Amino acid sequence: MTQLLTRPAPPVTAAPAVPKRARPRRLPTHLTLLLVCGVWTVPVLGLLVSSFRPAYEISTTGWWRAGEGRLTTDNYRDVLATGGFGTALANSLLITVPAVVAMVAIGSVAAFALARMSFAGRRAVTVAMIALLALPVQMTLVPVLRLYNAAGLTGTFAGIWLVHLGFGLPFAIYLLRTFFAGLPEEVFEAAALDGASTLTTFLRVAVPVSGPAIASVAIFQFIWVWNDLLIALIFLGGDPGVAPLTVAVSNLVSATTGQGWQLLTAAAFVAMAVPMVIFFALQRYFVRGLLAGSGK
Q1: One domain, residues 237 and 287
Q2: What distances in angstroms separate CA 159 from CA 20, 129, 223, 246, one per listed residue?
Q3: Other C-beta atoms within 10 Å of 47: how many?
Q4: Which of 248, 237, 92 is nearest to 153 (CA)?
Q5: Are 145 and 50 within one domain?
Q6: Are residues 246 and 104 part of one domain?
Q7: How many CB atoms within 10 Å of residue 79?
Q8: Which residues form a coiled coil (predicted)?
Q9: Which residue in 227, 235, 238, 224 sits closest to 268, CA to CA?
Q10: Nearest to 93 by CA among 258, 206, 195, 246
Q11: Any residues with CB less than 8 A from the CB of 161 and at least 6 apart, and which?
Q12: pTM of the complete model beyond 0.90
């Protein structure tokens, strides 16, 4: 009878312990982030609380003592009922939404062309576009205003759309071009082998995967156009029929000579509410778009 010999199993050795990183090293970073968040959050919270307080309480006690008094919505009702604030809110939407839509549409097409198409002068166009990012907007206001006066575009929605489109396109093209340039080359080669045209490749390949980058550009430009005061004052003037919300808040400050705090806080929070809702609703796309467009 044969005896079966089995080789003994090797002894099981425990994996070497991985030294844990010292967590206290992250503590200063976390404390710094909390401090920065507090610096930005506390004034907004104070503005919100003050907008619901009566005028005499705002002038006598701090916003942190709001629990001792009463809260009211009269400030918002007074702001929306006086000073053409409702019209200004509608004007801000009429100015911002078309300007952002046109900027995203034209910017994405131009960015795709600079990133994925070969044509003469592409490098020169890219360099010129980057140079426009370093050009201060204030340097172009006077010559552009002269052109607008000659063309009769001042004080019109079409005119303000064109101004925001011209000032915002370089940034939109730059960010989207970086994103398109980082997409895998194999995807576009496969589309070309399937006989897809350049337009089809852009619409069915590039656009569906570039949602985060497009959302980032849209958020940036929405906040920029919505909060703009200088360009609105120069190219729209003081006409209340076309004045946006920022101009209405500025006029309210002048009308109250800085004394009607209850109205100013309510007006300021109304102006802040829309971009805050847009940002928090699209925050995850915003962060993903920035990370995707940060490099190739």
Answers
A1: yes
A2: 60, 22, 19, 18
A3: 16
A4: 237
A5: no
A6: yes
A7: 25
A8: none
A9: 227
A10: 246
A11: 95, 98, 99, 102
A12: no
Cα–Cα distance for residue pair 179/210, rounded to 1 Å: 8
| pLDDT tens readout for residues 67-87 | 777 788 888 888 887 767 888
According to the model, what pLDDT value does residue 1 have? 44
Same domain, 182 and 53: no
Question: What are the structure tokens assigned to 175, written together?
Answer: 């960010």
CA distance 286 to 281: 10
Report residue 142 as tokens.
């006077």
Q: In the chain, which residues have pLDDT < 50?
A: 1-2, 4-5, 22, 293-296
Assigned token pair, 46: 């104070």
> Alpha-carbon distance 70 to 53, whole Å?
7
* Helical packing angle, 211-226 and 261-281, nearest 10°: 170
Is 10 part of a structural domain of the chain? Answer: no
List, for residues 31-43, the tens digit of each pLDDT value: 888 898 888 888 8
User: For residue 13, is it within any domain?
Assistant: no
Amino acid at residue number 58: I
Whether 178 and 223 map to the same domain: the answer is yes
User: Tokens 């076309």 — which residue?
Assistant: 242
Q: 289: closest CA among 223, 215, 221, 204?
A: 215
Same domain, 139 and 60: no
Range of the domain at 182: 84-292
Report yes or no on 26 lying in a domain: no
